[in-house]
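User: My advisor asked me to double-check a structure prediction for Arginase before group meeting. I don't want to rely on an old file, so could you generate it fresh from this sequence?
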Amino acid sequence: MAGDGPCHNPWPRACVAASLSCAWRARALPADPPFGLPIAGVTMTNDVVAPPTVALIGAPTDVGAGARGASMGPEALRVAGLHTALAHHGVVVEDWGNLSGPANPWQPAVDGYRHLDEVVQWNRAVHRAVGAALAQGRLPILLGGDHCLAVGSISAVAQHCRARGQKLRVLWLDAHADFNTSALTPSGNLHGMPLACLCGFGPAALVHLGGQGPAVQPQQVRQIGIRSVDAGEKRFVHEQGLEVYDMRYIDEMGMRHTMEQALAGVDADTHLHVSFDVDFLDPEIAPGVGTTVPGGPTYREAQLCMEMIADTGRLGSLDIVELNPALDVRNRTAQLAVDLVESLFGKSTLMREHQVRRRG
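Assistant: Sure, here is a fresh prediction for Arginase from the sequence you gave:
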């Protein structure tokens, strides 16, 4: 399974030789705002935006992964100063502590899935916690843990959006498509399947986790930074019509254009969910992940990605997953993740007056 091992392409920035094609969807963009980040459909304003109240929700498990260690991710993010960094930007931070769930039994796959019962239990806990945070008007930040937890997180967000009649846009920042099924991958590791489960392809207990399945439709998802995809998974991604901005697209078009396309149509009625797998980043700057793939976004590309998301003012929920302190160097990757999350909440490189976009 490509999601469980490094890419061996000698040309890092072209790691997917037959790259996932992403149709250039031509859209009429508005005139450039003063700071030059045109995003279709987003209202711009000089009004001050009240900072959100966030709920930090730890899910310390690596039950869906192929390597141990992601269970230590939540504490590494706290040690790296996530709470203080967000508070510095005026964000009200509530740390809800860690969820509890079954231990990782570290067993082989059964009927195509590893640790399915344990993965379901963890995702139910995540679903309840994220749903409770949203119901209380909080912006939930899920501290993973491996990426299988996105099933519970995004299912809760989708349920919240359906109840409010609100549109949902999911940005999937990842080196991997995570669109495998038990028929496509021999490993059975569920951290390679969460997006497929969310779109209706997977075990019923995960597909219908929120009481209604599928949780999302492929057209609600934008995948960014993809560069390691199994052959069968690639065909399946094409069949489902996922909108993918792989690393070749970013190389050719640049991160600014990529994000303009990924965010096009986001408006005041859109809930924006970011599922940030730390292996989205190039391993030269972020070594602390279990499935490193060369050729990912640089520090500046990642910062621009986050700043343009922040510019929309529509961020409503966030996953930070697959951070593996056991493979890190002096918590370097956790510190970088905190730095990037700061950019999602207002830190900017801009040295000139910065208009903001209206949240409400």
